[in-house]
Every structure is written in C-alpha cells, then in structure tokens.
C-alpha cells in the first residue's frame, strides 16, 4: 500500500494508526537509507534533472510525495553509478515512474512518450524496462521508502497550538502563509545536496521549525512538536541552518533569522548508514550486461 493516496484513500496521517505508522517510518528510514557521498561524476547535471522531474510531475499531476521519492531514488542511484550523458535523463525518468507506481493512481504514471523530446528516439519500451529493472535490482526491490514529504504531512497536523492565535481573524491569513511557506521550504530541501545525508524526519521537522520561526510564532518549537517528532530544538539547528542558507541562495523565501544562519552547534545529524554499493557503468541498450566499474 502506498504511503500517500490523498485522492483515492484515507490519509494515513489522519487515521487512528498515524502514531504507529510514523514510528515505523522513522524506524524504516534508519534501516534503509544509504550513505550519500555526492560523488557522482554527473552531479553537476542534478539541477537540470530535478527541474525535468518537477516539470513532468506538474504535467501529469503527480503529488509532491512522489517527486520526493523519485529524487531520493535518483540521488542514491547516481551516487553509485557512472552514467553516460544520454542515459542519465532516462534514469531520472525511470526513478519517477517507479515512484509513481508506488504513490500514484495508475492513470497518473508518466509514459515514455512524455520524455521523447529529451531522450534518444532510439530508446524503446524494452530498453526503458531494463533501466527500471537495473534500478530495482540496485535497491534490492525496496523502493517504497519514507521521504521528507511523508513526514511533513504528519507534522503539519501538529503545526499550530492554541497560543499561536491571539486574534481569530488572523488565523486564516497565518495558515495560508504557512501552507505556501511549507511548499517553498520543501522545494528548497530538494535542491540542497547537503540535506540528503540527514534523516528525512529530521529535515521535515526542521522545515516545520524554520517555518514557525520565520512566521514569528512563539515558541517556535512547541512541546507537542517535540513529542510528536522526537526531536529537541537543539537537534534541528544545524539542519535549519543548511535549509536557511539554501533558501537565501535561491531567493525563494524571506531570509531566515541570522541566529540560525550563524549557528554552529556541536550536534551532528544521525546520518543513516548502510552497506555501500559498488558504482557500475550502465548504458542503453546494454543496460543489464555492462559491468564496468567507475573507479
């Protein structure tokens, strides 16, 4: 069962089992995640790939949760493989289709023809399925993993507290600003390579903290949020700092308070470890047969 089917089933974060599901997701993110080394020879192409994924997602009306999962798969796969230029776009699209098969209705899964204008016309459905299989085999078919977007949906339900609204007439305005800001910070988190090494739940909690801080809500980290997320405010400062710097760099939001930007806490994020995979070279059409390592 997909973690996010807003249009087709109940939202898990609004069910009576939400706390149990959240605990499982936090356990799964630690158990599954791989070390990210930012060592892909094609890492300079990441902004273009991210833009392409977002563009296709918008055209096909794909959810933000699906986009986050696709980018997660793409980042880790690229980090462990040396891809040819004409293959890397196909790999990013394959990651999106795999994510859509998990998170979306079948009618929303992008088709290969959607990418015909940016990939080789010689790529057939058979070649594309081989790329998908290569990715699945790399992840040992375990691609239904929690992302920042999954945790955000749960934490958003606990964003407000009774003391946040001194005047009811301002509540709607504040909630609208909050929703828009959350989306912007989520986009910023996708663009930051440094945030990939943090637990998705930590990045999601940092987005909530940074948003409350930017909106001037006091306290910016409530007892309820501390209980729900399992993070103390001091645990999130370093992640908030990286998030704030990325936002300022791309000029998408109001700059975060200098207190965050100048912080240098001793806390280190619990980077999730797993056994490293050897990077291998893949190409189309011999995507399965090629075994040449990139080292």
UniProtKB/TrEMBL annotation:
Q: Which residues form the Cyclin-like domain?
A: 51-137, 163-245
Key word Cell cycle present in the record? yes
Name the keywords, alphabetized: Cell cycle, Cell division, Cyclin
Cyclin C-terminal domain location is: 146-272
Q: Which GO terms describe its biological process?
A: cell division; mitotic cell cycle phase transition; regulation of cell cycle
- Record's protein name: Cyclin-J
Q: Does the keyword Cell division apply?
A: yes
The record, for PANTHER family, names: CYCLINS (PTHR10177)
Alphabetized InterPro entries for the sequence? Cyclin (IPR039361), Cyclin-like_dom (IPR013763), Cyclin-like_sf (IPR036915), Cyclin_A/B-like (IPR046965), Cyclin_C-dom (IPR004367), Cyclin_N (IPR006671)
User: Which GO MF terms are attached to this record?
Assistant: cyclin-dependent protein serine/threonine kinase regulator activity
Cited CDD domains: CYCLIN_CCNJ-like_rpt2
């Amino acid at each position: 069962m997909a973690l996010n089917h807003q249009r087709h089933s109940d939202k898990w974060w609004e069910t009576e089992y939400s706390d149990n599901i959240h605990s499982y997701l936090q356990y799964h993110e630690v158990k599954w995640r791989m070390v990210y080394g930012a060592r892909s020879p094609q890492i300079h192409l990441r902004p273009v790939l991210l833009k392409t994924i977002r563009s296709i997602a918008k055209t096909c009306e794909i959810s933000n949760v699906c986009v986050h999962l696709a980018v997660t798969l793409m980042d880790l796969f690229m980090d462990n493989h040396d891809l040819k230029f004409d293959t890397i776009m196909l790999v990013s699209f394959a990651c999106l289709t795999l994510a859509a098969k998990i998170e979306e209705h079948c009618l929303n899964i992008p088709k290969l023809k959607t990418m015909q204008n940016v990939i080789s016309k010689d790529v057939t459905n058979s070649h594309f399925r081989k790329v998908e299989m290569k990715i699945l085999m790399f992840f040992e078919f375990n691609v239904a993993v929690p992302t920042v977007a999954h945790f955000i949906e749960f934490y958003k339900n606990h964003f407000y507290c009774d003391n946040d609204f001194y005047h009811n007439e301002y509540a709607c305005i504040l909630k609208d600003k909050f929703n828009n800001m959350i989306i912007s910070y989520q986009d910023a988190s996708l663009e930051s390579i440094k945030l990939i090494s943090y637990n998705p739940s930590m990045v999601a909690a940092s987005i909530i903290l940074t948003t409350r801080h930017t909106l001037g809500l006091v306290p910016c980290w409530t007892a309820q949020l501390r209980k729900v997320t399992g993070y103390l405010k001091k645990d999130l400062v370093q992640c908030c700092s990286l998030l704030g710097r990325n936002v300022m760099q791309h000029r998408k939001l109001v700059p975060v308070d200098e207190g965050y930007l100048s912080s240098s806490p001793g806390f280190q994020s619990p980077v999730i470890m797993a056994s490293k995979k050897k990077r291998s070279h893949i190409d189309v059409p011999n995507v399965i047969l090629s075994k040449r390592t990139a080292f």
